[in-house]
Amino acid sequence: AAGLQWVIDNHEKYRITTVNLAPVDDLAHDKPVATEIDDKLAELRRRGLWVSAPTGNHGFTNGISWPACQPNCFAIGAVKPGADVVTQDRHDKVDLLVPAAATSSSNAIVCGAVMLLREAIDQTDYDWKSDGKTLPDAMLAIMQQTGKSVEDEATKRTYRRLDVLAALDHVFAHAKKTE
User: Fold this and answer.
1) Cα–Cα distances in Å, from 77 out to 11, 24, 109, 120?
2) By the 8 A CB rule, do 92 and 31 touch?
3) What is the pLDDT of residue 178?
4) Helices 38-46 and 2-14: crossing angle, nearest 10°?
5) Distance between CA 79 and CA 84 in Å, rounded?
6) What are the domain boundaries of the chain?
7) Would the CA dihedral through 20, 22, 27, 28 be positive or negative?
């Protein structure tokens, strides 16, 4: 909680836009777990900072790890690279999948993609407000909209896999500034 408070207090000074929240509790949560970081996660979202966490690497199909299960933390899962097969923890709370051997890697990759997407939005004056109530919500919506559909055989759910080029192409195609 202290680290998140530091980000809240210092994000403008150090131009922090993205938080890769990587600790997991290795349990399968099918709903949020009330903890001391919840208010801080909500404040970070309100201030426009992306916060995401890995879903976990146990193959759970009935829940995902904390803190990815929290409402103001995006839950990032993984698909087998080159195969789009979901093998790690998943549940209906999973927001996006990324090709990686483990969800900690998929979360790091999506955080980098978010920084690229945010830069494109800022540089082009893309009107993100029609995509979400906060910039993080809008960026997730763009990545979901432009991502590839992935069917999970085990859960019969359909998830979206990150396609960073398609997300960037979407922003540039709908940009106010094209120079």
Assistant:
1) 26, 13, 11, 24
2) no
3) 61
4) 20
5) 5
6) 2-173
7) positive
What angle, 0 to 180 degrees and rounded to 10, lies between the N-to-C axes of helices 103-124 and 164-173?
10
* Total residue count of the chain as it appears in this document: 179
Strand order in the sheet with 18-20: 18-20, 50-54, 74-79, 96-99, 158-161, 148-151
| Residue 39: predicted pLDDT | 98
Which amino acid is residue 72, in one-letter code?
Answer: N
Rounded-to-integer distance, Cα 63 and Cα 83, Å: 23
The pTM assigned to this predicted structure is 0.96
CATH class (in words) of the domain with range 2-173: alpha beta
Q: Specify which residues 29 forms β-bridges with.
A: 64
27 neighbors 66 (Cβ within 8 angstroms):
yes
pLDDT in tens, the chain (179 residues): 999 999 999 999 999 999 999 989 999 999 999 999 999 999 999 999 999 999 999 999 999 999 999 999 999 999 999 999 998 999 999 999 999 999 999 999 999 999 999 999 999 999 999 999 999 999 999 999 999 999 999 999 999 999 999 999 999 999 987 65
Using CA atoms, how far apart are residues 16 and 162, in angstroms rounded to an integer?
A: 22
